[in-house]
Design a protein that fits this description.
Helix content is 74%, strand content 1%. With 498 residues, it is mainly alpha-helical. The chain has a two-stranded antiparallel ribbon with strand order 1-2.
């Protein structure tokens, strides 16, 4: 293996390869940081550029864009509450409002880097074995995992449990709009052909987070004696803005979140948005001070950015070893391989070892490039907040709408952004938590799809859910999670009465 890595490094570390990684990682960061754009869109745009390249240089270009795009989302999430990294908004933006935007960015950049490196090391060492384990997951197992994940809604319900559950149910209801899985029956479409395609997650996220924040910011700016700018101090900030003591305190949080991100990344169809929501809720449930989550603490940023970027290496496991893309971004990477006549799978490691290990080395180097480029741009990113709101907010609004339109080239998605912006504004005014709604929206469709497929396979029998070991294990964990959350809630209620 070491010899193969050395040969791969020699093939990648050419002047052309280094230049490609520098430029493509920077482009990925830019795409990730612009509201409405994404790593998937960046890979799609760069895919034609790889036609004239060698297979290794082409894949170096695409994985560099991928790594930069996934990490770049933290910039807009922390500074502007734009949901490229969904759960990073929960604590990243409140830190910015406290004037600690530099620290939040530093924490996000550092942990996104080590989360990526952690997952790539695991990818190199354990890829074939992890892929074999992932093959054992069928519809029964995916259903059980999704049900367990839904119990995290209770953890994300800060304040009123009733409001949290209502928010989660609303998200599940929104996820049922469109064509039903398996039988393709139209649901809640009201005769609209556009509604049959359902609601894509990007317009929903942009509306609930970005547009609602624009409305609230515009409202507060219109009031007298309200500051037009968020003050972010850059004085006295060294390195990444956190101390060695804080780093040691976050070790357990980092490891737990990295494993969650890696595991979710390996399982096809779940994606980074699921991993950072689960990591955030897990960090909150295991914290000594869960009430501080959502008010601006680095624990939330560490959990979300670690898991979000650890899913990068995880998603590459089924792609390279089995030829199964885990999400849209890795589907684009699969297209990049097939353009050059390469079929991912176990044989590719034997037939093209220089290519495979060259990709691993390219991912590692791109991670370091991402760290350097984002660190160098810290003060530039913070300077965005110095733009007056009456100029900044309209620009963000236009970018959000254009980004939503560019997703599927549908004007309907632009309307969805505006509609969910109004819904998000209502959520803020009623003090309803947004996180459970997003969790319900992301996982509700997964629960229904895998349940219906599993019931078809078992001819209506529930027995396989409890007799298949992995499925049964997650159902038991689900039951224990519900009991623990209920006990914790009752204990807190007694304390508050006392």
């Amino acid at each position: 293996m070491l010899q193969s890595l050395a040969i791969g490094a020699a093939a990648v570390c050419t002047p052309q390869g280094i230049l490609i990684m520098l430029l493509c990682t920077a482009a990925g960061v830019m795409f990730g940081s612009i509201p409405g754009l994404s790593a998937t869109m960046a890979i799609a745009l760069f895919l034609p550029l790889t036609y004239s390249m060698t297979p290794l240089m082409g894949m170096t270009c695409l994985v560099s864009v991928y790594i930069g795009g996934v990490s770049g989302g933290l910039i807009s999430a922390i500074l502007l509450r734009m949901p490229a990294s969904v759960a990073t908004c929960f604590d990243g933006y409140p830190l910015t409002q406290k004037g600690q935007g530099m620290k939040a960015l530093g924490v996000g950049i550092f942990y996104s880097f080590i989360g990526t490196i952690f997952s790539i090391i695991v990818l190199i060492l354990l890829a074939p074995n992890l892929a074999t384990l992932a093959l054992k997951f069928g519809d029964y197992e995916y259903f059980s995992i999704a049900v367990f994940s839904l119990t995290m809604i209770a953890t994300l319900s800060s304040g009123s449990m009733v409001k949290g559950l209502l928010s989660g149910l609303f998200g599940i209801a929104i996820g049922t709009v469109g064509m039903a899985p398996v039988d393709a029956a139209a649901r809640f479409t009201f005769g609209s052909s556009q509604m049959k395609a359902g609601m894509d997650i990007l317009p929903v996220l942009i509306g609930m987070f970005a547009l609602s924040e624009i409305m609230v910011s515009a409202e507060t700016s219109a009031k007298k004696n309200q500051p037009q700018l968020i003050q972010v101090s850059t004085k006295g900030v060294r390195g990444f803005g956190f101390t060695l003591k804080e780093f040691k305190e976050q070790l357990v949080n980092f490891l737990r979140s990295a494993l969650i991100g890696l595991g979710i990344g390996i399982l096809p169809g779940l994606g980074g948005s699921t991993s950072n929501l689960l990591a955030y809720s897990s960090a909150k449930s295991h914290s000594k001070y869960p009430e501080k989550f959502g008010t601006g603490i680095i624990d939330g940023v560490v959990a979300t950015e670690t898991s979000n970027n650890a899913s990068v290496g995880g998603a590459m496991v089924p792609l390279l070893t089995l030829g199964i893309p885990g999400d849209m971004a890795t589907a684009m990477l699969l297209g990049g391989l097939m353009i050059h006549g390469l079929q991912p799978g176990p044989l590719l490691f034997k037939e093209e070892p220089v290519l495979m290990y060259g990709i691993f080395i390219a991912m590692i180097i791109s991670s370091f490039v991402m760290l350097i480029e984002e660190s160098a741009g810290l003060k530039v990113f913070v300077s965005l907040l110095k733009i007056p709101k009456h100029i900044l907010l309209p620009i963000i609004f236009v970018l959000c709408v254009v980004g939503a339109f560019g997703l599927n080239n549908r004007l309907f998605d632009a309307y969805l952004v505006i509609a969910f912006g109004l819904i998000g504004y209502i959520f803020i005014k009623l003090k309803l938590p947004v996180a459970p709604m997003i969790m319900g929206f992301v996982l509700g469709d997964m629960v229904e799809t895998h349940l219906r497929r599993a019931m078809m396979d078992s001819k209506g029998s529930w027995e396989p859910f409890f007799t298949r070991p992995i499925s049964a294990l997650f159902l038991v964990i689900t039951l224990l999670s519900i009991i623990y959350i209920a006990w914790k809630h009752i204990r807190q209620a007694k304390k508050s009465k006392a």
